[in-house]
Amino acid sequence: MYLDELRTLLVRHARPDWTTAIDGVLISKVDRSDPPYLSMSGTVLAVIAQGAKRLALGERVYEYGAGQYLVTSVDLPVTGHFTEATPEHPALGFGLTLEPSAVAELLLQAGAGDIPRSGGSAPPGIAVSDAPDVLLDAVVRLLRLLDEPRDRAVLAPLVKREILWRLITGEQGGIVRQLGLADSSLSHIARAVRWIREHYAQPFRVEDVAQLSGMSVSAFYRNFQTVTAMSPIQFQKQIRLQEARLLLATHPNDITGVGQRVGYDNPSQFSREYRRQFGAPPSRDAAGLRRSVRTPATALP
């Protein structure tokens, strides 16, 4: 019942840039199964109403379809694409940005015993579950407000809080709850992820990043691997290659310069690792990048 109305609302309000009149809410409508593309996940809830999607993080592969949701708790480099999408039966999805401050506020307001206890170690950064009716109901009511401008400013924040509460107390609540805990293992790893993203072009020692995160080297490495499905060095490589591909979209004739800007001193190594990641050397891949590269702002996980 909820999925039928959800599909109707998503089709009605889909825009080319995937944005909506409600802050933090995105709508995807995709009518073809393009090749996988690399992007940053953001920290989001994504619900599929029609079609299916496949997402890869390191060696992990997540598949989810109509009636299922995916949550991401750390901004991670993922490769994904819709596997079921045609003009007659487009893939339809709802997205909501998850704000750590909003999670923290709900955790503070919750009564003792209302929220399950979280484990001490960091959970995976991505998880998939079947969407319960109470969650789908709240998503539908939020999207109905796109047709009710007078009520939107007052009611949208309330319904967004309800959706967040359903996530916090739901099957994947452990992932979402750690977003709002300042001293959680996930928050320490998120700090390291941000540092690597901001300094991806420079070499680093794992020991130094572990210290920055406030963790021992062994605990840092173990938790980083759990959250991101990669080692810190592999994560850096993913960020470097993703940034290189974005740069090549505007500098297709400067392969060596792009490689150096993202941290590769050896052009051969850059070309080899780029080809391993994207299936073609930089010179060949650059030709079609203006059409195929998508930014995180226009893509849902």
UniProtKB/TrEMBL annotation:
Name of the featured protein: AraC family transcriptional regulator
Keywords in alphabetical order: DNA-binding, Transcription, Transcription regulation
InterPro entries named among the record's database cross-references: Homeodomain-like_sf, HTH_AraC, HTH_AraC-typ_CS, Tscrpt_reg_HTH_AraC_N
Lineage of source species: Bacteria, Bacillati, Actinomycetota, Actinomycetes, Kitasatosporales
Species in which this protein is naturally found: Streptomyces phaeochromogenes
Pfam families: AraC_N (PF06719), HTH_18 (PF12833)
PROSITE patterns for this protein: HTH_ARAC_FAMILY_1, HTH_ARAC_FAMILY_2
HTH araC/xylS-type domain span: 190-288
Region: Disordered, residue numbers: 279-301
